[in-house]
Amino acid sequence: MRSATRLISTGFAAMALVASALAFGSLSAVRATEPPNPEADAKAFQKYFTDKFPKVKLDDFVNGPYSMNEDLRKQWIEKEEFPPYDFALDAGKELLAKPFKNGKTIADCFPNKGIGIRQNYPYFDEKQGKVVTLELAVNQCLESNGEKPFSYTKDDMAAVTAYMAYTSRGKPFDIKIPKDPRALEAYENGKRYFYTRRGQLNFSCATCHVQAGGERIRAETLAPALGILNAMPIYRSEWGGMGTISRRFTSCNSQIRAVPLKPQDDEYRDLEYYLSYVSNGLPISGPGARP
Amino acid sequence: MRNSFMRAAIFTAAALLTTGIVTARAASTEADYKAAYAAADEANNEAGKLRNQWTTAVKALKDARKAAEAGDYDKAVELSKHSEELSKAAIFQANEQKNAWKEMEIR
Question: Which of A3, A87, A91, B74 has the fewest Cβ atoms surrounding its Cβ within 10 A?
Answer without folding.
Answer: A3
